[in-house]
Amino acid sequence: MISEKMNQLINDQYHREMFSAHQYFAMSSYFLDKDLDGFANFFRVQAEEEIMHGLKQFDYVHEVDGKITSGPLEAPENEFESVLDVFEKALGHERYITQNINAIVKAALEEGDFATHNFFQWFIEEQVEEESLMRSLIAKLKLIDGNTSALYMMNEELMARKAGQEAA
Ligand code: OFO
Predict the structure, then answer these.
(1) Summary mean pLDDT of the chain
(2) Domain residue limits at 24
(3) Which atom of ligand 1 is nearest to the CA of 127?
(4) What torsion do the CA atoms of 130, 132, 134, 135 make, to the nearest 10 degrees?
(5) Strand, helix or coil at 75?
(6) Which atom of ligand 1 is nearest to the CA of 20?
(7) What is the position in ligand 1's atom list of the atom closest to the CA of 93?
(8) Quick one: angle between helices 37-63 and 4-33, nearest 10?
């Protein structure tokens, strides 16, 4: 049995995960439009992972006798200044998600909801990986510094990413 407060916190987080998917599909679409299929693939896989995150939370809430109440999602950003801009925005978004996961874990501990505390440990680790992944790709893009052939190579590398796999 989950408290109303924890149910609401996870309900909100479920929507954030679904928004993350919505945002990453928009980024994928931006890259497809620029013929950068590898970057588009990276964000498509990222979006699919976000749906998986949301579904894990959806299933958990119902498993502990709560309920997910679906509401609207915000519109994602569709226009970006550059490849680097997309990744910097993605990192900013992941940092925001991390803060919210931390707040849920803190609230779970405060009310002695150890099941929710335990469940969200997976997300704590996942956020470390997500932020690290975005940071490393930002570092690569800064090294490349607009060099077209290096960008093309990175595009090819990112094409190989599949669901459940880290990027090169
Ligand atoms: Fe679900 O981790 Fe990104 O947003």
Answers:
(1) 96
(2) 4-159
(3) 2
(4) 160
(5) coil
(6) 4
(7) 4
(8) 170
Task: Give me 49's structure tokens.
Answer: 């992972």
What are the tens digits of pLDDT across the range 94-139? 999 999 999 999 999 999 999 999 999 999 999 999 999 999 999 9
The one-character DSSP state at 160 is T
Domain count, the chain: 1
* Ligand 1 atom closest to 49 (CA): 1
Q: Residues with beta carbon inside 6 Å of ligand 1?
A: 17, 20, 50, 53, 94, 97, 126, 130
Tell which residue, 53, 60, 64, 90, has the closest CA to residue 164.
Answer: 53
Percent of the chain beyond pLDDT 90? 93
In a domain, 139, yes or no: yes
Is position 167 within any domain?
no
Q: Is residue 123 part of a domain?
A: yes
Distance 5 CA to ligand 1 centre (A): 22
The enclosing domain of 112 has a CATH number of 1.20.1260.10
Rounded to the nearest angstrom, the distance between the alpha carbon of 126 and the centre of ligand 1 is 8
- Taking only the tens place, the pLDDT of each residue in 133-161 is 999 999 999 999 989 999 999 999 999 98
107: amino acid identity, one letter: A
Quote the pTM value.
0.95
- Ligand 1 centroid to 149 CA: how many Å? 30
For 60-75, the pLDDT digits (tens) are 999 999 999 999 999 9
Whose CA is closest to atom 3 on ligand 1?
94
